[in-house]
Amino acid sequence: MVPSLLFELMLIGLLGVASQWVAWRFRMPAIVVMAATGLIIGPVFGLINPEQDFGDLYSPLISVAVAIILFEGSLNLSFKELRGIGKPVFRISTVGAFIAWILGSLTAHYIAGLSWAVAFVIGGLFVVTGPTVIMPLLRQAKLKARPAKVLKWEGIIVDPIGALLAVFAFEIITFITASNPEASQILLFFAGSLFAVFLGWILGRGLGWMFEMGHVPEFLKSPTVVVVVLFCFTIADVIMHETGLLSVTAMGITLANMGISSVSDMRHFKENISVLLISTIFIMLTASLDVATIMQIFNPHIIGYVLLMMFAVRPLSIFLSTIGTGLSLNEKVLIGWIAPRGIVALTVSGYFAGVLTEAGYEDASILTALTFALVIFTVIAHGFSIGWLSKKLNLSNKGNPGALIVGSNPFTIQLAKTLKEANYPSILVDSSWENLSLARKEGLEFYHGSMLSEQTEHHLDTIPYEYLLTLTHDKSYNSLLCTTFLPEYGRTNVFKVSPYTTFKDNGYSTGIVSQVGGRILFNKKFSLEDLIDKVENGFTVKQTTLTDKFTFKNYKETKDPETVYLFLIKPSGQLKFFSEEMRTVPASGDKIVSLTKGKEAEEGNSGQ
């Protein structure tokens, strides 16, 4: 028995974050772990029942969380991303959603045995995928840019469309079955939807203008955004149920395309909030299910319905709607398979189950079980298959995670060549064509542009690169890049060349604070000029494998003090760059790659 509501909140939050960590640590689909956790602490062991324990607060908490998650996702929908994918995204979000609605409704009627009225309501709702389930899968699978963007855009745009289709179907049913039907009822639906879009747009424009004019101080920007999102969602939802999702999506897209730097700065904050909300809300929803509902999903009609939705309705809607859009067959197969349902489907179906039952449609009582069955089947099937399928279809970034190297010079050219020979992808980024001429001559991957440019954000695919190495001659720029991209890459994966410029008896001196930005690469006594000088004076790259007899201590004893330890390759294939802040101690079986002078013997490889 949970002693208090506060304790229950703490437990849900703790288990949500722990689920995300377990998924990351063991490379499992996060949504599968969260669903399993919720089922274990809820219906299996009966530790908590959030819906019962939270009472009247339960639904508002879920709704607010969904609104913030959807807004955060829409903040990433810049129209510039649509270059090359605008046509398939538009078709899938309109024609594809309509086809899925019709086919899903027919399946619900003939296979699940629902009445036409209930079938069309639930058929409209189930066109959704949503950022709560799509984003964790995209982070896990590391798809190539085009299919990843299509799935992301579809997930965010179709989320409110699915809820609106369900509302629209319900309004049509009410209109047809009313004793005195009034056309104004349908007109009010469209008016409410248009108002929701307008409200989101005007609030987005107004908030953006206030930020640009400096009317909101920096420390209040994030709280202001959250409050305005809640205001936008609530006002639209009060005027017409389920239009709040449409309103916050419109607001997010508006802000995303105004080019306001402060909005970009807040993305990481809101992304962190979204990860926490997704974790806790998913656990709350699954923990609130009862055993009877779970057992009901094994009904043959429900299982048949779910299988047809996964293997027929979704693929057909994607293949038919993307004819002539330029998507390859492999991309259509992947997108046609990946359609997990999540929080929006569960919450909105719960609302309509109550409303339709009250309206006299007794078959609506199985909607919760039907929805949960679709959610759990799709989450597990798509969560575990997206990585395997994307590799089979050649739509994932194969190979080991590599390094994005900023700055093209003789040393970084040598480093990139070494990584390439070790089968780790790398790319050199520089705003100077003259500097990049070295990379072109060596046949290395490169990108011309500034890492801080908006153009680079939209044109450079950074997914294959796990590490960011900044090795330009501008030490302040290196630190700025590390600080900027630290939230994206993680504190342990962002490095800069030593900012120290002179060595004195009492230590090093530098013009900037060395602690700003990422970790210092290799050794702080080696500046970029020192590293370039070594390459130009005959230092060569050596690879040595440590053994039980030839340890890292033995290895260092054989090396000249001027040797630069570059990176370490673990037996698992994991890549680790050397740094004075590196906590991993090289062990037996590890391969050490270093830049050293002369033709020294590779003792570790000689069998010692």
Structure description:
The structure is a single chain. With 608 residues, the chain is an alpha/beta fold. It is 60% helix and 8% strand. The protein has 23 helices and 12 strands. The chain has helices at 5-25, 30-44, 50-54, 58-74, 86-110, 116-125, 131-141, 145-177, 183-212, 218-239, 244-256, 261-287, 291-296, 300-321, 329-337, 343-358, 367-392, 410-421, 433-442, 454-459, 475-489, 528-536, 552-558, and strands spanning 402-406, 426-430, 446-448, 465-470, 494-496, 502-504, 507-509, 519-520, 540-545, 564-569, 575-577, 591-596. The strands form 3 sheets. It has a 6-stranded parallel beta sheet, with helices on both faces. A 4-stranded antiparallel beta sheet has the order 9-12-10-11. A hairpin with a 5-residue loop joins β10 and β11 (575-577). α6 (116-125) packs antiparallel against α8, α7 (131-141) packs antiparallel against α8 and α8 (145-177) packs antiparallel against α9 (183-212). The protein starts with a helix and ends in a 12-residue tail after the last strand.
